[in-house]
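Students often ask why inverse folding is considered easier than folding. One informal answer: many sequences map to the same fold, so there is more than one right answer. In these notes we will look at a single instance of the problem. The structure comes first.
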């Protein structure tokens, strides 16, 4: 059965791969984006998750055009990397407001219809950095670690209504962001990964789609690392 799926930040990288995976499975897929031209083939809604009014308007448009959101993938995120001594209040608060509070906003709004339907799938996209930590990324790591506590609290809160809440923690994935690194930086990262390579966005998408499937109906509150072994033990 075709479901109404929303992928925030679904216009590029991991988010786009996830959106494509659901569309290929026959689901109706909406994506949010902040700027630029969105990819074709989806219901694309311009939305900044740091603005509550934009989140509300995005949901109204999605509900009108493809029905209440049954599967939510909270993927939208930003980085403002800087060593702590140079990190500004704005660098810290912007990352937390987008990655963590923005996720709160989109999940809370989706929760309304899921509670009425007594079913739903929520997957939050965290990061291996939220588990391992990373010098120069205290703000990003804090925001991504916060998603774990958020998800596990909701898993307990919503489980009786047949709503599952899980977290996927990708490692270093071959996207535009990592391709912008120097060859030396890329080699240094790969040396830390037991499997000796970058992940592919499609590999992240496959696990996300599984968590949203009937086969994963008894999985909730889980943190799934997809990182080539980089963060094992965390």
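Output (designed amino acids):
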């Amino acid at each position: 059965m075709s479901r109404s799926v929303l992928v925030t930040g679904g216009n590029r990288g991991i988010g786009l791969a996830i959106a494509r995976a659901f569309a290929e499975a026959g689901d109706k897929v909406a994506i949010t984006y902040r700027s630029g031209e969105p990819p074709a083939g989806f219901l694309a809604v311009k939305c900044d998750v740091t603005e509550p009014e934009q989140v509300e308007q995005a949901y109204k448009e999605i509900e009108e055009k493809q029905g209440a959101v049954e599967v939510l993938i909270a993927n939208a995120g930003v980085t403002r990397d800087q060593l702590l001594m140079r990190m500004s209040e704005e660098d810290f608060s912007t990352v937390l407001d987008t990655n963590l509070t923005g996720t709160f906003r989109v999940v809370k709004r989706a929760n309304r219809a899921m509670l009425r339907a007594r079913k739903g799938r929520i997957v939050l996209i965290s990061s291996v950095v939220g588990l391992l930590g990373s010098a120069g990324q205290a703000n990003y790591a804090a925001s991504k670690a916060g998603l774990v506590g958020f998800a596990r609290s909701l898993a307990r809160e919503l489980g009786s209504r047949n709503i599952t809440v899980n977290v996927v923690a990708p490692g270093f994935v071959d996207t535009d962001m990592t391709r912008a690194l120097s060859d030396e930086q890329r080699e240094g990262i790969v040396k830390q990964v037991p499997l000796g390579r970058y992940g592919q966005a499609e590999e992240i998408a496959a696990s996300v789609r599984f968590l949203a499937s009937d086969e994963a109906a008894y999985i909730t509150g889980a943190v799934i690392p997809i990182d080539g072994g980089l963060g094992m033990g965390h």
